[in-house]
Structures are given as C-alpha cells and as structure tokens.
Design a protein that fits this description.
This protein has 244 residues and is α+β, with helices and mostly antiparallel strands. It has helices at residues 14-52, 59-64, 174-178, 209-243; strands spanning 2-5, 8-11, 74-81, 87-94, 97-107, 114-123, 139-147, 160-161, 167-169, 185-192. The longest helix has 39 residues, at 14-52. This is SURF1-like protein.
Length: 244
C-alpha cells in the first residue's frame, strides 16, 4: 500500500501499519488517561482546600453533618476508645518497613455513634503469626483528617483474620465492621495527623497532578515517536526500492 505525505511517497506493509497504529492508539489512550487523572487530582485537592478553609470541626459537627460534605475536613476533639476493638490494617509500608495501621472506634462526648480513627503506623514483628499489641489510651486527643472515601483495594482472601483483638484486617469495610460493633458506625475514617506511639503517614493524594501531567507528556511523546519511526521506515523502504 502506497500513499503520499508531505510530498513524499511511502510504501507501507499492512501488518506493519496495523502494529504501528495499534501502538500509537494505546500510547495516546495512556496519555489521555494520565491527563484525566491529573484533572481529577486537581479537583480533589481543591475540594479539600475549600473544606479546610472553614476551619476544624468537632466530633459533634461531624456526626451532625454529611460525611461526603465534610470529606477532607480537619477535626479537632477528644475521643474515647471503645475497647476491646483494635484492627491492624495489613501490608502498610513506611520507609521500606512492613507494618500495620492501627484502627480503633471512638466515641465523642454525648454520642453513642462510633467513628473509626486511623492512629498511624506500627511496625510488624518478625513472626507474622504474632500480632503486635498496641497500647491504646482510654482518652485520645484527636487532630485528624476526615475521609469518607471507601477503599478500592483489591481484596484477596478473607478480610478479617482471627476471633480476638487486635485483629488483622485487609481493608476497611464499614458494613463488615458494623457487624462487630455494639453501636452504629459513622461512614468515615479519621486519619490522625499528630504523632504518638504510632506514626501518621496518610496522604489524601499520593501522586500530585503535576506528576500525572508529566507521565501524560511522556506517553504522548512515545506515541509521536512510534508514528515517526513507522513513517521513516516506510520512506526508507521506498527510497531503497527506487535505488534498486
């Protein structure tokens, strides 16, 4: 198959053309996806900033409002741990070390509704069969980030392991945890921001929009390069054919 482009005659093998166009389409799609992710992250950061500009909320304000509307807000209050419930969120990596995020339910004054608090990271022991036993105070000063977004992690196997506390957990499932608790559970997680015996490490946006845009430009550049190589190869073939 032959065609003219920029005054040059190109001879293209149909199989080579199909491979080139397929690779070009895939790379363009990847570039577009990264650009969309950048836009989504930008909106998410803007929403969090807008909510936080209104100042910290109390536990009472959180429970009286909508978890979705308060997503990204800062909360400052005193919470009271409801024993014996302690869940250890598995496979949390911090500074190259394996550990758990310590998650507990708390109550605020004059309320029976429970809210999950992620206290932060705790190192795992050498023996996976032996779970660490974190010491949780009855009263906790909470300075936390409110997140209402559920986990989208892929669950492989059973979510909860064991029949006593602390209990290993693969991902946060409000409905599943509600079955273990004596009172209603608010659909949000408070990510503690101040260090204690545990290390806070949660970030609402792990990869910033700028990095997504950088990846988008890289994929776009590769797409152009693939197309250019295909055209150059075809032109070289036509040139060699004319010389023969």
């Amino acid at each position: 198959m032959q065609f003219k482009l920029f005054g040059q005659l190109f001879t293209v093998n149909r199989v080579w053309l199909l491979i080139t166009l397929t690779a070009f389409a895939i790379l363009i799609k990847l570039s577009h996806w990264q650009w969309q992710r950048a836009a989504e992250k930008t909106v998410q950061l803007q929403q969090i900033a807008a909510v936080q500009q209104q100042g910290p909320v109390s536990g009472r304000q959180l429970l009286a409002g909508s978890a979705t509307e308060l997503d990204g807000a800062l909360l400052s209050d005193t919470g009271y741990w409801v024993p014996p419930y302690i869940w250890l969120l598995d496979n949390q990596i911090l500074h190259g070390k394996v550990g758990y995020d310590v998650i507990i339910p708390v109550q605020f004054a004059d309320s029976s509704t429970l809210v999950l608090v992620n206290l932060g990271w705790l190192a795992a022991g050498h023996n996976r069969q032996l779970l660490p036993e974190p010491q949780i105070p009855a009263e906790i000063a909470i300075a936390a980030l409110v997140r209402s977004r559920p986990s989208n992690a892929l669950l492989l196997g059973q979510n909860l392991e064991g029949d006593s506390y602390p209990m290993r957990m693969q991902q946060i499932d409000y409905a599943l945890l509600q079955q273990q608790l004596p009172w209603s559970l608010y659909p949000a997680v408070l990510y503690q921001q101040q260090a204690s015996d545990f290390i806070p490490h949660y970030q609402p946006v792990v990869m910033p929009p700028e990095k997504h845009r950088g990846y988008a430009l890289q994929w776009f550049g590769l797409a152009i390069a693939v197309l250019a190589v295909g055209l150059a190869t075809s032109w070289q073939r036509e040139k060699n054919y004319e010389q023969e």
